[in-house]
Amino acid sequence: MLNKYPLWKNLLIIAVLGIGLLYAVPNLYRPDPALQVSGESSGVVIDQALMTRLSAALDAGGIEHFGEKANETGKSGLIRLYETDVQLRAQRIVQRTLGDGYVVALNLASNTPAWLSNLGAQAMKLGLDLSGGVHFLLEVDTDSAIATRLEHYSSGIKKKLREERIRGFVSLDNGIISGKFASAELRDTALGLIRKEFTELTGERLDSADGDDSFYLRAIIGEAKRKEIEDYAVSQNLTTLRNRVNELGVSEPLVQRQGRNRIVVELPGIQDTAEAKRILGKTANLDFRLEAKYDAPISEREQFEFRNPGRGEPSAWLERDVVITGERVANAQASFDQNGMPQVNITLDSQGGTLMHRMTRHNINRRLGVLFIERKSRTHYERDAEGVEHAVKVPYDEKKIISLATIKDALGVQFRITGLDAPGEAAELSLLLRAGALAAPIDFVEERTVGPSLGAENIEKGLNAVKIGLGMVALFMLVYYRVFGVIAVVALGANIILLTACMSLLGATLTLPGIAGIVLTVGMAVDANVLIFSRIREELRAGLSVQHAIEAGYGRAFVTIMDSNITTLLVAVILYAVGTGPVRGFAVTLSLGILTSMFTAIMGTRAIVNFVYGGRRITKLAI
To answer: pLDDT tens digit string along 301-336?
Structure first.
C-alpha cells in the first residue's frame, strides 16, 4: 500500500524521538555556582565534619549557601551557592579556613535529577563564551629552571675535575659557579676544561685578594643561553600542560603562551575544576639518585625525609648527582604488587634506559632512591594600606623519598616504583609522569570562572535571533504550505531536540559559533521539506493522484537532498579537521544538524504524512 510505513519503522522513529527527548531534557536544569574542595594529594580525606566546619565559616562570613556535601569516596566535597557573584569571596573564606594542603576551586554543580544522571543523561557543555568553564593564568618559574641547569653544570664540572685529577673546590652561589685552586696552573687547566666541555658557560679568571694565595675562576650562563633555557622551560611546560589537559578529557581547551613566562589555560565545560587545578599545578617530577656512602663529603650528599612516615627509618642520605629525572619517563601505569600494595610501572625512553642500565650495572647491592619533587606553597595574610586583607603565597619545593630499594640486577627501560600510600596516589603519579614532567614549577597567578566573553547582552541578542529566525521560518511554512507546513514545523522542533540530545551525549561544547551552526541547520532542514513539498505540487499539477504525488515527491526529491547535504557535511568535516576552538564548535553542530535534519525532514515528516493521508481516498491536498 502506498504511503504506509511498516510497523518496525514507525516504532524506530518513535524510539529515536523518545530517546532524544530523554537526553535533551537535562538542558532545562540550570547548574548552581559552587565551590569544590579537595586535597593537594590523594591521601587527604574530605569528610562531612570538614564540610560542616566550612559551612559555619561561610555563615560567619555572610555567604548564603546550601547543599554542602562530601563525596562518598572522601576525595572531594561540594558547597552550592545561590549567586555567582559571591564565588570568589566564598573561595577566600574557605581557603583561609582550610589552610595549606587543600585545593578550593570554582565550579558549576549539576542539577540534573539522579534518575536522569543514572541513565547517562547530562546537560551539554557550554563554551567559555556562553558561561561554564574555568580560566587559569599560570606563571612559569624560569629562575628555577636556570638554577636547576646550573646545579647540573656544577655537578658535571666536579665530576670532570675528579676524572682529570684536578684538585680544587667548586661551589654554586647566586647563579655563579666558583672555583678555588691551590695554583694558577690548576686553575688554568680547570678553566680550559670548562671551556671545552661546557661550551654554554662563560668562564673567566678572577683576581685574588691581597694576602690570599689561592687562585679563583668563575663560570656563568651567557644571556643568550639563559634566554634559551627560559624559552625551553615555557615551551616544555606548554606541551606538558596540553598533555595533562588531554588526560583530563576536556573538550576544546585553550592552552597558549602569554608574554615571556606565562601560560593561559581555559577549560570549557569542565566538571571537576578542583581536579583540573591540582593536576595542572603539580610538578610531580622524579629524581633517581644513589644512596650516598657514609664517608662521602657533605658537599656530595643531601639528606631527605621519607614521604611515607610509617617506614622504619625517618630519613636517608642521597648523592647530589642525579642519575635520571622524570623527563626520561616514556610511560607510567599504576598497578599493584604481589602484596596488594600500590605501585607504578615505569618505562623509560632509550637514553634514560641506557643511563639507568649503565649506573645499576656498576652498583649492584647499593640502594637506589626515588625522590619525589613537588611544588607547594605556604600561605600567610597581609593587610594593604587600606586595611584590606590579602592572601600571600610563598612557593617552595618539597623533596621526599618515596622508594629506597637495593639494586639486585642491572635495570633497563622498565622497572617499578613502590612505597606509595594509596591506589589514588599511584594513579595520580602515573598520570602526571605519563603526561610529561614540567621543566620548571608553575604558580597560579589568576583563577576565575569565565562568563560570556561577548557580554550577556550579545548572547541574549544571539538567542533572540535564533527564536525570531525559527518563528519567521515557521510562519512562512504555515502560510505557504498550510497543513504540510504544520508537519514541517513539528519536524523542525524534533530536529532541535535530537540535535541537543546528540550534543549532550557526545559531550560536545556549545559556543556562539555553534549556535550559528544550529541556525544554519534549521534552514537546511526546512530547505529539504521545501524541495519535497514543491515536488509534490509539481506531481499534482502533472495529473498524478494524491497518493502517487506524495510517493513521487518524497522519492524523487531524495537524491537532490542527499547531494546537497553530503557536500555540506564534507565541508563541515574539513572545518573540524583544520580548525580550532570556535571553528570546531561550528563544524560539530553543523555536522550533527545535517544528520538529524535528514532523519526528521525525510523520515519524520513522511511518517506524519503517512499517518494523516496514507491509505485514505483523498482528491485534494492542503499544500
So the answer is: 999 998 776 656 788 999 988 888 877 887 888 888
Q: 280 with 429, same domain?
A: yes
Residues 296 and 429 in one domain: yes
* Domain shared by 148 and 161, yes or no: yes
Span 33-60, pLDDT tens digits: 888 888 876 668 899 999 999 999 999 9
- Residue 376 in any domain: the answer is yes
pLDDT at residue 506 above 70? yes
Cβ contact 372:307 at 8 Å:
yes
Domain around 147: 143-226
The 10s digit of each residue's pLDDT in 81-122 is: 988 778 878 888 998 899 887 888 777 788 888 888 888 888
- Residue 574's pLDDT is what? 92
DSSP structure string for 570-596: HHHHHHHHH--THHHHHHHHHHHHHHH
User: Both 458 and 556 in a single domain?
Assistant: yes
Sign of the dihedral through C-alpha 602, 485, 10, 620? negative
Integer angstrom CA distances of residue 48 from 37, 56, 101, 142, 185 = 12, 12, 18, 40, 71
Does one domain contain both 479 and 432? no
pLDDT value, residue 281:
67
Mean pLDDT taken over the chain: 84
pLDDT recorded at residue 419: 66
Distance (Å, whole) CA 225 – CA 595: 55
Consecutive H or E run containing 232: helix 223-248
Same domain, 165 and 232: no
Q: Does one domain contain both 83 and 169?
A: no
- The residue behind cell 609522569 is 433
Q: Domain boundary at 181, 197, 226, which? A: 226
Position 128 in a domain: no
Q: Can you tell me whether residue 123 is helix, strand or coil?
A: coil
Please tell me the pTM assigned to this model: 0.60
Cell numbers at residue 588, please? 560539530
Per the structure, how many domains does the chain have?
4
Judge whether 590 and 579 are in contact, CB under 8 Å. Answer: no
| Neighbour tally for 259: CB within 10 Å | 9
Residue 135 in domain? no
Residues 505 and 586 in one domain: yes
In angstroms, the CA 137 to CA 145 distance is: 19
Domain annotation covers residue 124: no
Question: How many angstroms separate the CA atoms of 487 and 484, rounded?
Answer: 5
Convert 141-163 into a string of H (helix), E (strand) and C (coil).
CHHHHHHHHHHHHHHHHHHHHHH
